[in-house]
Structures are given as structure tokens and as C-alpha cells.
Amino acid sequence: MDKEKLILSIMKEAEQDGEPISREEAEEMAEMEIKAKGITEYAQAKEKKPRKKREVKKDAKKIALILRLHDFLEQITDESQIVNEQREIEFSLYGESYSLTLTKHRKAKEK
Predict the structure, then answer these.
(1) Which of 5, 42, 57, 69 is deepest in the core (most CB within 10 A)?
(2) Mean pLDDT by 10-residue block, N- to C-terminus, for the chain (111 residues)?
């Protein structure tokens, strides 16, 4: 609940009880209520910042390996094509479709 709405609600409630209070008193009560409830006020940006597109670093070793695998597959398959130069090759063999995905594993962390 935003602070202004809370102040107005406190003033309206006090008026209904037959004991109208001033705005300053309502502000003070609202602040105490917010602190008591542990409500934190977050400011929201009106416009979201556009995200920068992440640039993928090219791995020369992966590209070279994909090219070599593609050359090999061309010799033994009906057709093959590189889908992603660092990651994937699609090919067909004996009338069936296949894809080969290359994954480079990170080094294990030392304990």
C-alpha cells in the first residue's frame, strides 16, 4: 500500500470513528504503521532499460572441430549442413535425420 493511500485511509477511519485528525497526525500514524509492518517502499523505474545483446565469443578450436566433423560427415552421409558454426551439425544417413551437438566442458574447480 502506498503511503498517500494509507494516510487518506487513516484520516477517513478516524472521521468515521467521530474523532477527525489532522493530516500531520495521519502522516505520523502512517509512518509508524509502515515501520511496524516492516513495509519497504520500492521506487519503480517508469521505463525499463533495453538489455544489451550478449556477444558470444568465438572459440577457434570448436569452429575447427565442427568443420572437420562436417568434412567427415560429408564423405559418409547423404547430406549435411552446419547449423551453428561452434555447436551443431545436421545430417541425414540411410534416410534418417540426425543432429550432432558439440559441448565443451569447463575445467573442474580445484578444492
Answers:
(1) 69
(2) 81 84 86 73 75 88 94 90 94 92 90 73
